[in-house]
């Protein structure tokens, strides 16, 4: 996982070539490396937008309206969760508990944890950057 994280930090995502490289150099089956990369939500297998907004859908955030938050973001930006705007500016993602349940509903914008957040705040923040 550490090697995958280093590669993702360097290139922004893990493509087939990166997964094959890791599998080859660690002597692991490619399917096992791909399974790890696809299981953990903090790994991404496709290029992301210039800005990323990861909304937590863990229990506390779910109860505090995370699904509505995602819906409002998607509707305003014209994309679904897991997609990037056509101009490549914003990707909206979801993740399990971020470990900051006291901030529910929480989100991570370009690596910065925010909460409690409203869709309007997230959109405003994304427009500023
Ligand atoms: S459930 Fe969202 S931070 Fe824990």
Q: Kindly report the spatial arrangement of strands forming the biggest sheet.
A: 2-1-3-4
CATH superfamily of the largest domain: Glutaredoxin
* Ions, cofactors and other bound molecules: FE2/S2 (inorganic) cluster
Number of domains: 2
Main sheet specs: 4 strands, mixed
**CATH fold name of the largest domain, please?**
Glutaredoxin
- Uncertain segments: none
Tell me the strand percentage band.
5-15%
| Helix and strand composition category | alpha+beta
Q: What is the CATH level 1 assignment of the largest domain?
A: Alpha Beta
Helix content: 40-55%
Report the C-alpha radius of gyration, rounded: 16 Å
CATH architecture heading of the largest domain: 3-Layer(aba) Sandwich
Please state the average pLDDT score: 92
Molecular structure report:
The protein is an alpha+beta fold. The chain is globular, with a radius of gyration of 16 Å. It has helices at residues 2-11, 16-26, 30-39, 59-63, 66-77, 119-128; strands at residues 51-56, 90-95, 107-109, 112-114. The model has no long low-confidence stretch (mean pLDDT 92). A 4-stranded mixed sheet has the order 2-1-3-4, with helices on one face. The protein is built from 6 helices and 4 strands; from the N terminus they run αααβααβββα. Bound molecules: FE2/S2 (inorganic) cluster.
Summarize this, please?
The chain has 129 residues and is of the alpha+beta class. 45% of the residues lie in helices and 14% in strands.
